[in-house]
Write a structure and sequence with these properties.
Largest sheet: 9 strands, antiparallel
Number of strands: 20
Distance between the termini: 19 Å
Helix content: 25-40%
Number of helices: 15
Shape: globular
Radius of gyration: 24 Å
Length: 536
């Protein structure tokens, strides 16, 4: 069921499991626990719709390198950032979990095989087509010859896309109708409170946007917010220790990462028609598959660079018919009504032929349509090397609830820059030798210019800050995502990633969330209760 904390007289709540956050991970936990007999309470600070007061709580300061995602990629609303993402999914590589000696930090305390069964379960949550494997090669089905790249260098692959990316729309009704899972919105978690021994969570202090306060007690707590906000909550929980929760070794907030992206050059295809055949989106059984290029992990290891991928960006002329049509379709997918200005140009008789052509290609040819004119750019997405000097901390300013705002120092290492440059150079060489076309790289890519970082931006894929480690000296959580030294607190968030691959973090976050719920259910089943006694 859904309840607005400001609309009820109740100020104290009890549950078997309390989940903090109703974004991708929070909804995943709710769905994973839906069929159990456990009382589950999901806390969401935002409302059902976008609210400016809720959004303001995410405002923070950026030190050092610019970072757009601190404000543009965080949503305090039921559904979290799934209300604005595109729905792209791809699992991490098995090599992402392995140690790489040339990186500052690498290696997870779990393996790809540990997560593999949970990756399969994520597709039920995402709503992607599980009958089509991630190794799917749509070019073969379409009788399109793949380029003859040199072995063990780069290869084409496709990512899967959700039909309904917004989890509140896709799954909200299931939660709303449940009598065991309650989603309490307008309930911002201000602080995690310890028991007397400080080895378990005693309660959570919550507040509405207007300042009404309450307490939540649960046998187990799963912190399922975004990376930045979960770090902020841990640092704000000073009843555990002056330095915050889980911060005995000064690791909370450290090793913050985001995927680093850069436009590295312009592609001049040998044949534009052939290029569209390779890189326009594919559709199968009504689901979208987006072509990309990935660096072979063996090449990365041999070259002592990190994992990276690339995408081809077809730039449509400003206000082009195709772009306007895509915006209308995107609005309709969100179950919203397009504005008249969005559809006015699409209903002109003279433009109908272009729309019909794109519609036919989608419906009959199972292909998307990209701009037929305009420049084509090569964009690299690299994982970011985790460095201690890249971190989230608490600033001096406070928000409307009295919580200290985030201060982010985002540092991009030389290895990260080198990965982008070497990947760009390799793709240029492989495209040209395969006869696809020429790639004209930007000057900063081909020189030793110290301005390279100026061209690198974030991709709204935040990770790190509550690093998973083999022990408390190396991380904040263990391989099960339980906080070291706190018996009933788990973290289902990209904040725990030791490294972040090149893939969108959502799928791996969901896999971890499902795994955590299985662990917590088993602990409750085995009678592994925490030191906090809950009645009822």
């Amino acid at each position: 069921m859904y309840i607005d904390f400001s609309q009820t007289s109740q100020v104290e709540f009890e549950a078997d499991i309390c989940v903090i956050g109703a974004g991708a991970a929070g909804f995943t936990c709710a769905l994973s626990l839906l069929s159990s007999d456990l009382r589950v309470l999901v806390l969401e600070g935002g409302l059902k719709n976008v609210d400016s007061k809720a959004a303001d709580l995410h405002r923070g300061d950026v030190i050092n390198h610019p970072h757009l995602g601190i404000h543009e990629a965080r949503e305090r609303i039921v559904g979290g950032t799934t209300t604005k993402w595109g729905g792209q999914a791809y699992p991490f590589l098995k090599e992402d979990f392995e140690e790489r000696s040339y990186m500052n930090v690498s290696g997870w305390p779990l393996t790809y095989q540990d997560l593999e069964p949970y990756y399969k379960k994520t597709e039920e949550v995402l709503g992607t087509d599980s009958l089509v494997p991630f190794q799917h090669k749509p070019w073969k089905e379409g009788n399109i010859n793949e380029p003859a790249f040199t072995d063990n260098t780069i290869e084409l692959f496709v990512t899967k896309w959700c039909k309904i990316p917004n989890f509140a729309l896709q799954h909200g009704e299931k939660i709303e109708k449940s009598d065991r899972v309650t989603l309490l919105r307008n309930a911002n978690v201000m602080e995690i409170l310890p028991n007397a021994e400080r080895n378990a969570v005693e309660a959570l202090r919550i507040a509405t946007l207007d300042g009404k306060e309450g307490l939540v007690r649960a046998k187990y707590v799963i912190a399922a917010g975004g990376a930045m906000e979960t770090v902020r909550l841990f640092l704000s929980s000073t009843k555990f220790a002056a330095e915050g929760l889980g911060n005995s070794y000064g690791l909370v907030g450290r090793y913050f990462q985001d995927h680093c992206a850069a436009i590295v050059g312009q592609i001049v295809p040998a044949s534009r028609k052939m290029f569209h055949a390779l890189f326009d989106p594919f559709y199968k059984r009504g689901f979208k598959y987006f072509p990309r290029i990935k660096l072979d992990p063996s090449f990365a290891n041999k070259s002592k660079i990190m994992h990276a991928s690339a995408q081809v960006v077809f730039c449509a002329p400003e206000n082009s018919l195709l772009q306007q049509a895509k915006e209308v379709i995107g609005t309709l997918r969100k179950k919203q009504m397009p504005k008249f200005d969005q559809i006015r140009s699409l209903i002109k008789p003279g433009e109908f032929l272009s729309i019909a052509k794109a519609a036919w290609r989608w419906k009959v040819g199972n292909r998307g349509t990209s701009a037929e004119t305009g420049p084509i750019w090569l964009e690299i997405h690299s994982e970011q090397e985790p460095v201690y000097e890249s971190y989230v901390s608490l600033g001096d300013r406070t928000d409307a609830l009295g919580m200290r705002r985030i201060a982010l120092k985002w540092k991009i290492s030389d290895l990260t820059v080198n990965t982008i440059k070497k990947t760009a150079t390799l793709i240029k060489e492989e495209f040209e030798q395969a006869g696809i076309g020429k790639v004209v790289l930007e000057p900063w890519v081909t020189t030793n210019s110290n301005t390279a970082r100026r061209w690198i931006g974030d991709t709204f894929h935040q990770a790190g800050g509550l690093k998973m480690g083999f022990n408390e000296q190396e991380g904040v959580v263990d391989s099960s995502c339980k906080v070291f030294g706190v018996e009933n607190l788990f973290v289902a968030s990209s904040a725990v990633f030791p490294t972040s691959s090149f893939s969108n973090p959502t799928m791996t976050t969901i896999a971890l969330a499902i795994r955590i719920c299985d662990t917590v259910k088993e602990r409750i089943k085995q009678g592994m209760e925490n030191p906090v006694h809950i009645t009822g």
